[in-house]
Amino acid sequence: MTAVSRLSVNVNAIAMLRNRRDLPWPSVTGLASIAMEAGAKGITVHPRPDERHIRKSDVFDLAELIEERFPNKELCLEGYPSPDFLKLVEEARPEQVLFVPDDPDQTTSDHGWDFSKGTGLLETAIAASKEWAITVSLFCNPDPSDPEHAARLGAERIEIYTGPYGACFDDADQAAKELDKVVATANAAKAVGLGVNAGHDLTVENIPALLAKAPFIREMSIGHGFTADALIYGFTESVRRFRQAMGEL
Is position 111 annotated as part of the catalytic site? Predict the structure, then answer.
């Protein structure tokens, strides 16, 4: 029997490619289906206010796809907890929501929450999401002091920003230092009872070292690295490759 997958495929890049033309391909739902059929645990999307990649309509299409065809899979919505985003979360009812501290103009999520600043916005968003029976995760820097703050706010999980680790693909010594920060944060989250996710610039090359030290990580949201891999190997084979890197096959 194969292990339950940790892999959540982020299809933002597919939507970005589609949006270059006024055409319905490549299909976000079509490729999401291929990924889930191949064994991914679910799909992650980060709809931006300007809809430069994922559109609101994609969110509803993906929610419907999972409800009708993949009821054992999960949809995760990422976003800044603005009123518009919370309205989308309430209407789409994903299985999980990841709140990120992004400015609308950011090209990608590149830092976690600064918990030293006011957290009223997060507290409101977390309470609302729990009323909708949605699992709440907070995007955190690789800093072992952050998980305690996330737990105090009522989050059920954190997603550790692994960008600094992934950026060290050509520097083994620095990669080891960044990996230690990620692992320390994961252990701190586990110690306060939080589930641990990880995401950003994870690849088939750097995942094994992370899971060797933090095997309890329950989910990895992978978009850029997965899409780059899939351009060479195809969606089905890339799911297999990433799951193999995760020790699941």
Answer: no
